[in-house]
Every structure is written in C-alpha cells, then in structure tokens.
Amino acid sequence: MSESNTQGHGGGQVEEADPATVRKAVAGAAIGNGVEWFDYAVYAYLTVQIGLNFFPDFSPAAQSLFVFAGIAIPFVLRPLGGIILGPLGDRFGRRQVLAVTIVLMSGATFLIGVLPSFSVIGFAAPILLLTLRLIQGFSTGGEYGGAATFIAEYAPSKRRGFFGSFLEFGTLAGTVLGAMLATAVQLGLSEESLNSWGWRIPFLVAGPLGLVGFYLRSKLEDTPAFRAAEQENTTTTAPFREVVRNVWPQILQLIGFVMLLNVANYTLLTYMPSYLTQTIGIDETESLVVLIVVMLVMMVVITPIGRLSDRIGRKPLLLGSAISTFVLAIPAFWLISQKGWVPVTIGIAILGIQLVLMLGVIGSALPAMFPTRNRYGGFSIGYATSTAAFGGTAPLINTALIQATGNTYIPAFYLMLAAAVAIYPLVKMPETAGLDISHPTRIPGTDHYVPDREPATT
Fold it and tell me: Which residues contact 363 (CB under 8 A, 6 or more apart)?
C-alpha cells in the first residue's frame, strides 16, 4: 500500500456530527427514498385507472401489462443514472447530486398528474408518460446510493444500523402514504370521477413532498467523511474509471445480494396489489387494507431491526432473511391462495418479515462495502444495475409468466431463485457493524486499500 494510504488519513476517525445534525441528515436523505416509493405505490395501486387513461383500446389484461411495462422500462435508464450520478457524487459531493435527484424524481411524478390522457392527445399521451418514467428511472439511479451513503457517512459508527434503517423507513412510509391516498380516492370518489380525474390527485402530492426534501438537503453540509477527504485531497478526479478499477469485486457482491432484495421489494410493495385482485381474485378493498396493515407493522419494527444489527451484526440478519425466503416462499403463497383474510394476512406477513429483515440492515451494510473515495459511485452502479435487472422487472415478469403458464406460484419460485443466488455473496461479505468507514481509501472490514491517485501515464 502507498504511504499516503497509511498516513494521509492518519488512521484516525473523522469527527462525528452532533446528534441534531445527524437527525436532519437522516430526514433529508430518507424523504427522497420516500418520494420514489410513493410514486411506485401510487402507480401500482392505480393500474386500472392508468390503463384506462393511457391504453384505452386494449383488454384489461393487456392494460396491466402495459402499465407494469411503465414500471419496468424506466429501469433501463437506472444503471445510466448510477454510472453518471454516482461517480459525480464521489467527485463533487453527495449533497449536490442528491439535490438534483429529488427535483427530477418529484417533478416527473407531479407532471404525470397533469398529463393529458389518450382521449385528448392520442398516442402522445403514453409516449409522454414513458418519457417521464424514464426521467424517474435515470434520477433514481443516483438517488438511493447517494441517500444511503449520506446517512452512513453522517451516522456514528456504533449506531449506523439504527440510523441507516430510516432510509428504508422512508421506503415504507412513501409506499404506505401512496397506498393510502390511492385507496382514499378509490373509496371516496365515484367510479366515473376516479377514472376521469381523481386518479391524478396522489401524483400531484409528490410536488410538495419533493420541495420539502430539496429544502432539507440544501440546508445541510456535505458528509463529514467527504469533507475530510476533500481537505486531505483524497477525493477522486476520475470517478468512473476508478470505480471500475478499484471496487468491481464489491460491486459484483452487491449485485448478487440486491437481486433478492429487489425481487422481494417489488413483488411485495409494487406487484402484490395487482396479484391479489387480478390473479387470486380477492376483493380490492380487502387486499389494500391487508397490505397497508402489514406495511405499517414493518414500519414499527424496522428501526429496532436496525438497532439489533448494531449489536449482533448485519450478516446474521441478512442471511436469516435469505434462507427463510428460500424455505417459506411457497408456504406463504399457498396461504395467500386460500383467499380468506386470515390466511392471506399471514402469508403477506411472512413475506413482510423476510423483507423487513433486509430493509432494516441494507442502509448500513451496503455503503460500508466501499471506501469513501469510491463509495457513492460503486454503490450506485451496483445497486442500479441489479435493480434494473431484477427489481422493476419483477411485476412484469411475474405477470407475463403467470399468464403464459397459469401457475400462480411463479412469484414464489422467483423469490426462491433470488434467495439461492444471494446466499453466497452474503457469506463472503465482510461484517462491518461498528467499524469506522470514514477512511478515504480503505475497504471497510478488510486490510485492502484502493489506490489514492491515478496511475502515472507514459
């Protein structure tokens, strides 16, 4: 290792922020993730209305496929967002990039709420809808990695699991808020009003949410770890090239695990409303209530799970989630197939417990796989790539395979496959609970350092 690796940082810890600043940083980061999932929830819970307004000439089944394609296709741009925005966060700072991503995300969601329908502007309507979804896909490629990095670098080492869990608390809060608003307009409006204009109301709420998030982020300094790296002149000058060269093994590990996280996340939080009503045949109101109750319970337990990971480590919880998903996916979907509200609730709760074990830990575990110098870029590229391949596509894949095979257990099989893939990278992942992750070039939990400068050219 180079001398500057051992001495430039001095081997000491970056001074921790005061508790009030940490709380503001956590809130500012988590609200962006909440806005992202607010949009997914609204979009997923209003699939019928979106289909009627933008794809009116197709059958209900085809409308669902087109609407879910509107979730899946934007994920094509998510890796591009990670490749561009993530390394920029390592070069110019986390805060500046995060201010851009929340404006793009919330602005695109708001504009969907004022978008003319097919009956007004014809084929331009679904084209504009897809364009706005693509903007969201690009921005989210840099949002999650930046938000997770922001919290991890602000949080005290001994409480990183607790504070990191609030990132996914934002996920659940955004999902619940979107689901509740969608349910409220469905129950409170006539079918004609809901289909013509009522479905737009939840999308419009994203505008004010985004402004609040932008305000919170703009009032904070960048993270202590990044500011220290700037002062020591150890920030990267070639962020993308360095990420590819320095941390590709960590990126591959992250992709393997995040496959399970995203298949579970998008199956339960995005696909399940349609699965329960259109595939299983459960009453729409009953399915919405069950899902909201389970998500509320997940919100209650997610921060205690993060706190528990500070005590016993991240790996036991993540491995427990992967193994239990592999074992219990089929029993959970068997219970759901019984249609009664009790077995359905138990089946959804099983899936929710497996998911929240991951959600409570990933905000602290995944950023800690990378050194400060390449953290935002490495995390964003790996996470966005895996999410594009396995997350946003999950509802579309499940819907298409069920229609092709008639087998309603397809989502369970997909979860089992993802869990089997995830176990190996989880075993190989170093345990980082309680470790200082602020060193600019040291890979946390290892004795390995990344180069602190570009190789000399000849």
Answer: 148, 151, 152, 163, 164, 165, 166, 167, 168, 306
Q: Where are the domains of the chain?
A: 15-224+235-428
Q: Which pLDDT does position 455 carry in this prediction?
A: 52
- In the block, residue with structure tokens 């600019």: 440
Q: Which phi and psi (to 5°) does residue 442 adopt? A: -85, 135
CB-based contact 367:250 (threshold 8 Å)? no
CATH class of residue range 15-224+235-428: mainly alpha
**What is the reported pLDDT for 62?**
73
Amino acid at 243: V
Q: Is 174 exposed, middle or buried (0-12, 13-18, 19+ CB in 10 A)?
A: buried
Would you say residue 377 has pLDDT above 70?
yes
Task: Output helix, strand, coil percentages for the chain, rounded to the nearest 5.
Answer: 80, 0, 20
Q: Residue 281: which region, alpha, beta or left (left: phi > 0; alpha: psi -120 to 50)? A: left
The encoded tokens of residue 404 equal 């092709």
Residue 452: what residue type? D
What single string gives the DSSP state of each residue in 46-79?
THHHHHHHH-TTS-HHHHHHHHHHHHHGGGGTHH
